[in-house]
Design brief:
The protein has about 325 residues and is mainly beta. It has 2 helices and 18 strands. A hairpin with a 7-residue loop joins strand 17 and strand 18. The longest helix has 13 residues.
Length: about 325
C-alpha cells in the first residue's frame, strides 16, 4: 500500500510538502498498489522452508517464508523504482491486519531496549488534535513494533531489519514505512526533493520483517517477548559469510575457536569487549541483560555472572566498575 505525498507550497508551516524531514500524506487513507488488478501469487514447498511469492506490480514484490524450525514468519519485501510517472510522490507501507482487540494501544522500542506504550491520538503531556491523523501517530521503530490483546493473552510483533516509521491506526493493525519517493522539497534545508536515483532510475529497496505471534505470559517455556528478543539478537548479530578457495586456506586457519570457557546465561550477552587503554592492557567489557522487567517470569530476573576464568584467551587480574555517565 502507499500514501500519496502532499505537494504543499511551504509558504506556511501547516502546508509543508511531504519530504526528507516530513511525512505528510495528502489524504489519510493509503492506496492499494495492485488496485484494480489481481496479485500474482506462486507457492513453493520444501523440506526446510515454504515460500509464497507475491507480485503486486512491476515495482513491488514480496516473499513470505515459513521455516520449519523457527518461531517467526519472514516477509522479504522488494520495492522500487517507485512509480512517479503520474507526477505523484508515493510513500510505501507494509500493513498487517489481525483480529486482535488492542484498542488504541501499541508499543515501539527505544533504540532496541525498552518498549514504550503508545496510545493512538493521545499525548500524555498536552491535548492532542488530529490535524495530521496519520503522521501524528507515527513513531520511530528501531527494531520492533508490538500489539497486545490482554483479553486473549496474545502478542503480535514485527521485528524490522532497519529503523523505520510505524504506527497502529486501528485496533489489531500495524503498518511500517518501507520506502519513499517524493517530488517536492519540504524546505527544511536539503534544498531538493526526496527523489534519489541509481543508474538513472529511482532507488530499489529490499528488507525483511519478522512476524511473531504468541502468548504474553506462560506457565512454562519462554514468553513471546523473550522469543522476540532472541530473534532480534540473532538477526542483529548474524555471522558474516565469506567464500574463497578452501585448498588455499584450509591448512592455515584456525578451524575452531571459543572465546569463553563456559556459556553465558540465556538472558545475558556481551555487548562490548574492546581495548580500553592499550598501554595498561585494559579492556572495556559491557554485559547486557537483554530482557526488560516483567517480559518473562524467569528470564527477566536479575542474574549474576562470574567473570573469573570466563575468557579463554586472557586472565582478569583487576576489575574497575564503571557507570554509563
Amino acid at each position: 500500500m502507499y500514501y500519496i505525498g502532499s505537494r504543499g507550497n511551504n509558504n506556511g508551516f501547516d502546508n509543508r510538502a511531504s519530504g526528507a524531514y516530513i511525512f505528510r500524506p495528502s489524504i489519510a487513507y493509503p492506496n492499494a498498489i495492485s488496485f484494480g488488478s489481481s496479485v500474482n501469487v506462486t507457492y513453493y514447498t520444501g523440506d526446510l522452508v515454504d515460500e509464497v511469492h507475491q507480485t503486486f506490480s512491476s515495482w513491488a514484490k514480496q516473499i513470505i517464508r515459513l521455516y520449519k524450525d523457527t518461531d517467526y514468519v519472514e516477509f522479504d519485501w522488494l520495492v522500487g523504482p517507485i512509480n512517479t510517472s503520474d507526477d505523484k510522490g508515493r510513500e510505501i507501507i507494509s500493513r498487517f491486519s489481525t483480529s486482535l482487540n488492542t484498542n488504541d494501544l501499541f508499543y515501539t522500542d527505544a533504540n532496541g531496549r525498552e518498549m514504550i506504550e503508545r496510545r493512538r491520538d493521545y499525548r500524555n503531556t498536552y491535548t492532542y488534535t488530529d490535524e495530521e491523523p496519520v503522521a501524528g501517530n507515527y513513531y520511530p521503530v528501531t527494531s520492533k513494533i508490538q500489539l497486545k490483546d490482554t483479553t486473549q493473552n496474545i502478542e503480535f510483533a514485527i521485528l524490522n531489519d532497519r529503523a523505520q516509521g510505524g504506527t497502529s491506526l486501528a485496533s489489531g493493525q500495524v503498518e511500517l514505512m518501507i520506502h519513499r519517493r517524493l517530488l517536492d522539497d519540504d524546505a527544511f534545508g536539503v534544498g531538493e526533493a526526496l527523489d534519489e536515483e541509481q543508474f538513472g532510475i529511482g532507488l530499489v529497496a529490499r528488507g525483511q520483517h519478522y512476524i511473531t505471534l504468541g502468548p504474553s505470559t506462560v506457565n512454562s517455556g519462554k514468553t513471546s517477548s523473550a522469543i522476540q528478543r532472541d530473534i532480534a539478537q540473532k538477526k542483529l548479530l548474524a555471522p558474516w559469510t565469506f567464500v574463497t578457495s578452501i585448498t588455499e586456506l584450509w591448512n592455515n586457519i584456525n578451524k575452531e575457536f571459543s572465546g569463553l570457557t563456559r556459556a553465558l546465561p540465556d538472558n545475558v550477552q556481551i555487548l562490548t569487549l574492546e581495548p580500553w587503554k592499550v598501554t595498561e592492557k585494559s579492556i572495556l567489557l559491557r554485559l547486557e541483560h537483554v530482557l526488560e522487567k516483567n517480559e518473562d517470569p524467569t528470564l527477566s530476573e536479575t542474574v549474576t555472572v562470574n567473570l573469573d576464568g570466563l575468557f579463554s584467551y586472557f586472565d582478569i587480574t583487576n576489575i574497575q566498575e564503571m557507570t554509563l555517565d
